[in-house]
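Changelog note: in this version the structure field was regenerated for every chain. One regenerated record is shown below for reference.
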Amino acid sequence: MTQELVHEPKACDGALVRAFGFLGKRWNGMIIGVLSEGPTTFTGLRRAVVGISDSVLSDRLTELARAGLVQRTVDEGPPVAVSYQLTEAGASLRPVLEQLATWAATSLPERECTGDH
């Protein structure tokens, strides 16, 4: 009688699950990618992240700020100007995003940059 091998499923790394749950949320990674080039305005982000609505961009920026990845700065002006930039924690994602972009360029078929799934 032969003994069957029983394979226990491996548990996912909890940190990796959280990272992909957050960065995999539609638009978050793209917003961080744009901000990795430097500070920009809401309008600059809206132009760079093709297809995102104003309300979704606002929601995502709020979420990224709450997570400590993006800082919102208001220059009282006149005129009042608001800009967004990565915090130190957000900037620490640059190498990861660069590696993902390199991998995608060599391993995934090219698609239009619309953010659509």
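Spot check on this record: The helical segments are 14-23, 28-35, 42-48, 54-66, 88-91, 94-107. The mean pLDDT is 87.
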